Amino acid sequence: MAMAKVFFSDLKTGRCSSVVEARLLRFWEARNVKRGGELMWMDLLMVDVNSTVMQVTITAGRLPQFMEKLHAGTMFSVSGFDVSRCAQNFRLTDSSLMIRFNESTSFQELTEPDSPLPEEAFRFRNHSELIGLANTNTQLPGMLITAETSLYVVDALST
Fold first, then answer.
1. Residue 86 and residue 54 share a domain
2. What is the DSSP letter of 3?
3. What's the number of domains the chain is made of?
4. Dihedral angle computed from the Cα positions of residues 33, 85, 142 and 71, in that order, rounded to the nearest 10 degrees
């Protein structure tokens, strides 16, 4: 029996055996500077068919089985992962949830997804939203641009 396909917006906390099709936008290492730069985990940003961006974390111990597959822009079918809450003091996306790979995670490259996947994602903020975020240390600002006399922050989440 085929596993059910879901979107990032359908996810709830706990173990998920459903399948999500998504594109890997960007990834980077998280290192512990107090321990000589020891690798702790890899953070990924992925986008699904609905343009919902989700943070994904792979711990250092699980990274060897996935590392060779990590290429920005590649599309994947992901299943068998844990969904947990993001740290409230710093979130990489608008979602309050994140995906954590576990011992049963399947991460298969897709050549033809069921639906076209976005190639990039952006987050736009108006002036009042920027003022509300000022000095909260909850989000990293991206590139500041001016459009029609209004100031916006664009967080470019693609490569």
1. yes
2. P
3. 2
4. 70
